[in-house]
Amino acid sequence: MKSAVTSALLVLAVTFTVSAATKPKPAAKPFNVVEASISDMQAALKDGRVTSHELVLQYLVRIATYEDKLHAAITVNPNALKEADERDRERAVGKIRGPLHGIPIALKDNIQTTDLPTTGGALAFVNLVPPYDATLTKNLRDAGAIIMAKTQLTELANWVAGNPPMPTNYNALNGYGFNPYDPRRDPRTETGDGRPALATGGSSSGAGTTANFWAANVGSETSGSILSPSNQNMLAAIKPTVGRISRYGVIPITADQDTAGPMAKYVTDAAIMFGVLEGNNPDPNDAATTRCTPPPNHDYTVFLKKDGLKGSRIGIPRAGFYDKFTTPGATTPRGGLNPEQTKAMNDAIAVLKAEGAIVIDPADIPSVVDKNAADNYFLWGVCTDMDDVKGKKCSIDLAYGMERDFNKWLASLGTAAPVKSLAELRKWNSDHQKMGAIRYGQSLLDISDAMDLDLFKSRYESDRANDIRLSATHGIDEVMKSQNLDALLFPGPSGASIAARPGYPTVIVPWAMVPNAPQTAFPETFKALPQPFGVSFTGMACSEPTLLKLAYSFEQATKKRVPPASTP
How far is residue 119's CA from residue 448's CA, in Å, rounded to a whole number? Predict the structure, then answer.
């Protein structure tokens, strides 16, 4: 049975479709949004083969048809058609705001909009309409983009529950999000809570973009939440250098690692969005936006060259990422790929070589293979409870940052804030458990609220320095400088964490389909469908132009993206 929201959307879409059908139309083949790129749309808009109104209308029909299957949207903009009409009127008089003029885009629902709720998926924020737009929202609007919807996400970007962990793409407000490549529920009794059989990836949602509900979407990442859902939904995406895109007006975890970024079907679309999201000037509300120097006119498409791989030096970080590796003091190996993933990456490396890249194999990350436990990246984790904190073998960066930056964000909302502090949110959640506020608990919020900012300041500073040392100085920086590399090639999103700690960029590209074979096997009667598997190009700070060049060249040489069969 369709929800009230999708039923209303279907009525709206059909009404407009019937009305439009009564008008005489030229015999030309109608434009179809399915798998269309932003460039395709702009060309059709320019030629008069489609209007922004018609683009939105087609997307509304698709949302009404498939949303109940996927839960890709938390809110659909009821004024999307009105905004499309405004962009069409501007186009008619020659006013084109930018490369996204009249293009429907969705935002993760932790990105503020003053005309739609921004919930973070939390019940406490269900009615929160912020008093100011996120800077990136303003940049999109100024460029003529139509904010089509707010997307599904893991509640508060997955810093709520740690033991047991909250399933990715679950929140108390909208339940579970589902993957279009296999939108069925997990049949295993061990995980019999209604979660999807095929994971959707990190806290951002790519389902609506891959199912053609909108042209592209904006996600956010602290450690993997752009790269992982893009991998799982066969999307191209940019996880930027922290500071490339303003974080002002985005619900935070920690300013040390948080960033928004574009998720799209094609590298060109991601590059177009990236330039718009970056904005024309540094944001006075986010000092990190001065970190990198943008290209002229913020145009990243100039770096998209088909022969971009030729002569490039790309490293293969085998230990721990491709091959199993035994850390100091351990007796069993960890990490590595299964046979199907190994074949996919061997094939990807063959493409690099065929396109003229110089492949350095292996190019192991020094902190990963270091035999001294204190200098080994894999033995330095993220603290998720107070026992971890006391053990001093993990970083409190995320826990400390959440206490610092979340409370600062709440204060910026003024009287619009439903709660005034992280402590108040925890109490609100506890008081509303029967409504489903904390189905999986709130242990991560608990540890953050325990982070007295003065008491833990020196520990935080020490941990932050160690994060940078192991991930960058003795990690990515060391191998890239010693081997004179342009990028490291990671399987899927596996390099997300090590790149996230120093705030380094990654561009992911669709590549293969591999079996969905979890450690706890599905019942024999359940035939799991294959899952997408991408490749990621990672570099040091501000290297997005180089990474886009490499990713685009790989994409054009392979063109492996296939749309999901569940949403034709």
Answer: 20
Contact 300, 346 (CB under 8 A): no
Q: Which two tokens stand for residue 115?
A: 């005309």
Catalytic (active site) residue 7: no
For the chain, the straight-line distance linking the first and the last C-alpha, in angstroms and rounded, comes to: 20
445 phi and psi, to 5 degrees? -65, -35
Q: Which residues contact 45 (CB under 8 A, 6 or more apart)?
A: 51, 52, 91, 101, 102
CA–CA gap between residue 375 and residue 365 (Å, rounded): 12
In terms of Cβ atoms closer than 10 Å to its own Cβ (0-12, 13-18, 19+), residue 92 is exposed
Which of 225, 312, 395, 543 is an active site residue?
A: 225
Average pLDDT, consecutive stretches of 10 residues, N- to C-terminus, the chain (568 residues): 51 49 56 98 98 98 98 98 98 97 98 98 98 98 98 98 93 97 96 94 96 98 98 98 98 98 98 97 97 96 98 98 96 95 98 98 98 97 94 96 98 98 98 96 97 98 98 98 98 98 98 95 96 98 98 98 97
Under 8 Å between Cβ of 299 and 275: yes
Distance CA 332, CA 211 (A): 41
CATH class entry, domain 4-302: alpha beta
Beta pairing class for 487-491 and 216-221? unpaired
Which residues of the chain does CATH 3.90.1300.10 include?
4-302
- As a whole number of angstroms, the distance between CA 362 and CA 389 comes to 35
Report which of 421, 442, 417, 420 is spatially closest to residue 432, judged by C-alpha positions.
Answer: 442
Is residue 524 classed exposed, middle or buried when 0-12, 13-18 and 19+ CB atoms within 10 A define those classes?
exposed
Residues 6+ apart with CB under 8 A from 424: none
Cα–Cα distance, 230 to 558 (Å, whole number): 17
Q: Please tell me the distance from the alpha carbon of residue 333 to that of residue 525, in angstroms, as a whole number.
A: 32
* 3-class secondary structure, 543: coil
Q: Centre a 10 Å sphere on the Cβ of residue 545 and count the other Cβ atoms it contains.
A: 18
Q: Residue 219: in which H helix or E strand, if any?
A: strand 216-221
Identified catalytic residue from 52, 138, 150, 203? 203
Identified catalytic residue from 108, 150, 239, 549? 108
- Residue 526, sorted as left (phi over 0), alpha (psi -120 to 50) or beta, turns out to be beta
Look at residue 442 and give its three-state secondary structure: coil
- In which order are the strands placed within the sheet that holds 216-221? 73-76, 146-151, 104-108, 216-221, 259-264, 236-239, 506-514, 531-538, 487-491, 313-315, 358-360
Residue 36 CB-half CA count within 13 A: 22
Q: Which own/partner pairs from 389-396 qualify as long-range (CB within 8 Å, at least 24 positions apart)?
A: 389/447, 394/463, 395/463, 395/464, 395/466, 395/467, 395/501, 396/451, 396/456, 396/459, 396/460, 396/463
Angle, alpha carbons 467-453-373 (nearest 5°): 25
